[in-house]
Amino acid sequence: MAERGPRAPQVAKERKLEPALGAGEGKPRERGLVRILRVVELIVIYLALEWVSAIQEYRGVPVTAWNPGLGVIFASLVSGRKTAALALFFGALLADSLVGTGIGDPSHAVVVAGIVSLGYFGVAQAARTLDLDPRLNRLRDVALLLSSALAGAVFVGLALSIFLAGLGGASVEQTARETLPLLVGDLIGIAVVTPLILRSTRANARGRIVDLSFVAGVLAAALVAALAIILVLREGDQRAYQAFYFLFIPVVFVALRNGIDGACVILAATQLALLAGLNLYGYDGEAFINFQSLMAVLTATGLLAGAVSSERDAASRAARRARERLKEMESEAARADRFHLVTGLASSLSHEINQPMTAARAYARTAQKLAEAPDADVARVRDYVNRCVAQIDQAGEILRSTREFLRRGEPGRALADPAAILSDSVTLMRPKAMQKRVRILADPCAEPLSCFCDRVQIQQVLMNLIDNSIAALGDDGRVDGIVTVSLRPGKGGMVEFSVRDDGPGVDPEFAARVFEALATTKENGLGLGLAISAGIVEAHGGRIWLASAQPGATEFRFVIPASPDTPQGYDIGSS
Question: Would 530 be classed as within a structural domain?
Fold first, then answer.
């Protein structure tokens, strides 16, 4: 039995390795098959879209002012799938015979396919070298994608023009002018289809499909765009080109409202509606190219506007998350500061609690002996029991105040009694003051007051100020130091607390930065107490300041709103 323990894991490991090795041997073939299938899939998609969009041709070359198949393959190229270049090569090569472009000479078809595939593969690789993010989350990525599309179209157009000029004897300038539809078709194909493909692969973009607000806005704008296209194309003359600019209204509206995702959808819908309208109304090839050129400008405008909107929204979300994180960090810092305070009070609190508990035990023993006497004095027994209960209540009040002060809780503001806050703070700090031989005097306001605050946080501020005064008096070696904690109504609907001591005062240089983080004169101080206190008071809409730094009359004051309706802002100079 002793040998089975060490051997069993080894046997199990060996058994697990066997299928793992078998799977490892099959993975290269499996990955190779998957790549081949992806290439075939892209070729089929390219040929299908080429057949649908083959509206015009020039000298047997598939020159059309709308090339969506290229947009699909270019999306794969900029995503890092280099095998997509093979799909583009074989797709352009097979288009000669299957789609009916009729280049004729197989060697010429190979050259044309090679120019197209190598040109766009090189441009895609250059874009990736420039850190193009295929998620298109930034304006920079959208601008880089459009620039790459334009560069690829220009390069391929010029290369084909030179090649065709060499075949037919026409000048390069004439051939380039006549192959302009290629440049426009490739550019519009990439600009419309590639962003749509890239964005649709993202989970959060696909999730917007079920967003009713997103769908309703895009459908409404698409309907407006379709109606505008009908009205534009019905003109049938030069005014149609001028009226085309009305399409910018729905496209830019959706781009600004729904970001890059909305821009991609509305541009695809507009392009399809434009193609349908051009064929329906029988526009010739020249008009087709002119409208597609205008569509290229509209596409660039819509994508850039959408990218700006998305980037702005992303920045707003990031800023909101940063604010939330900052609040969490401030809350954690405040909690750490509270524990730091109570850590210093621990020995004092244990002594303070031990006294009433010892007295309560003595009273209880006395009451027990009196009750056991034959002629028990009920009145005296009741008196000792009452004294016992009072001592237990005193210890319980200290524990309650400490527990409430340390609780994490979510910040919640409500109407509170400032006199009770002052009393609890003095109760918790008095044991430490007694150890330092410092007296704490409470000076609550005679008239009833209320304040709107997070009770625990304001108690923390008050205890921080009292603790600083006790430390200053203790470090000065005083045995007759006095700390006075006062409460009074402030101006402008505020409630004012003050902590005054007759200690050595505050150095003028330190007084200027007393509320800065990490500023401290204590040997073991964190330098966070006053900074956290200032943050808490200001978050409540109040102010905290050093009212006097003079020796023998050092005083800190802070004010908080007396009610939720108290106006924000407070002029400390008026106090």
Answer: yes
